[in-house]
Design a protein that fits this description.
Elements (H helix, E strand, L loop, with lengths): L2 E10 L2 E11 L4 E5 L6 H9 L6 E6 L2 E2 L5 H7 L1 E4 L11 H7 L9 H10 L1 H5 L10 H13 L5 E5 L7 H16 L3 E5 L3 H7 L2 E6 L2 E7 H5 L2 H6 L6 H17 L1 H5 L8
Parallel strand pairs: 3-8, 3-9, 6-7, 7-8
Antiparallel strand pairs: 1-2, 1-4, 4-5, 9-10
Helix pairs in contact: 3-6
Length: about 270
């Protein structure tokens, strides 16, 4: 197994954000985590990438326990992340943003840059444009491209469709499938359950910091309970607990909590 998340518990102060999450991702898979706001999806990705500390449990990557390994060393080991809210450097050019993704690597990154340009021709066209002046869809492409510059074995994608027009959502998900086809394993967090389940091999449903369902993605796509949950079927207790976690996450990362907006294109 390439990535194993084993019974992890994570807290924001006294608030338990993750309450024993276990997830596995095998080489070559697309695995998606779905659930409402505050379910613990983003916290799970942050814990894998080293941005959140574990209270207990373990994260193993490529056969090695990385639970206490610093985040920058996890990047070098092969974990790349395109964060929620994109997190690009607005004052830097597109090319400079991409090269930042390869900053920790010592070898030449021209091959990876060419591959990113092939996946995202728009980034090649706008290589000298400031990242902050690009549209929301272009910024999402830039965030994914920057993560790919690190040559990840597994790519963590956090809400890649957030704030995008439907046509751009389809384009982003098609690119995720192509990235996977080229050999990169993907762990995808996405509120657009329909789209995520259509491209994933397997999926986990998170509710208030716990995994409540795990199955092949096609099965969950047709699961009446899963479908009902995304039409407002959550209980009042679940919504209250999710709100507490979402508030704690927002306090930690107000920029991501505010969410991206479509910016101008020049």
């Amino acid at each position: 197994m390439l990535l194993e998340i084993d019974d992890i518990h994570v807290h924001y102060g006294k608030i338990a954000a993750l309450k024993g999450i276990s997830v596995s991702v095998d080489q070559g898979e697309i695995v998606t985590l779905i659930g409402a706001n505050g379910a613990g999806k983003t916290t799970t990705l942050k814990t894998v990438s080293g941005l959140r500390n574990l209270s207990s449990g373990a994260v193993r990557f490529d056969g090695r326990d990385i639970s206490r390994v610093p985040g920058h060393k996890r990047v070098l080991a092969g974990i790349g992340q395109a964060p929620e809210g994109r997190g690009i450097f607005p004052g830097m050019t597109v090319e400079e943003n991409l090269l930042m993704g390869a900053y920790a690597r010592k070898e030449d990154s021209s091959k990876e840059l060419a591959e990113v340009h092939e996946l995202f021709p728009r980034l090649a066209e706008r290589r000298n444009q400031a990242g902050g002046t690009m549209s929301g869809g272009e910024q999402q492409m830039l965030a994914i491209g920057r993560a790919l510059m690190a040559k990840p074995k597994v790519l963590l994608l956090d809400e890649p469709s957030m704030g995008l027009a439907p046509m751009l959502v389809q384009q982003i998900f098609s690119i995720i499938v192509e990235i996977n086809r080229r050999g990169t394993t993907v762990l995808l967090v996405e509120q657009n359950a329909q789209q995520a389940l259509q491209i994933a091999h397997r999926a986990y449903v998170l509710e208030t910091g716990r995994v409540v369902k795990a199955a092949p993605a096609g099965e969950l796509l047709d699961d009446p309970q899963v479908r009902a949950a995304y039409l407002g079927g959550a209980s009042g207790d679940d919504l209250t607990a999710a709100s507490d976690v979402a508030s704690a996450e927002a306090a930690e990362d107000p920029e991501a909590a505010r969410g991206p907006e479509e910016g101008p294109t020049r």
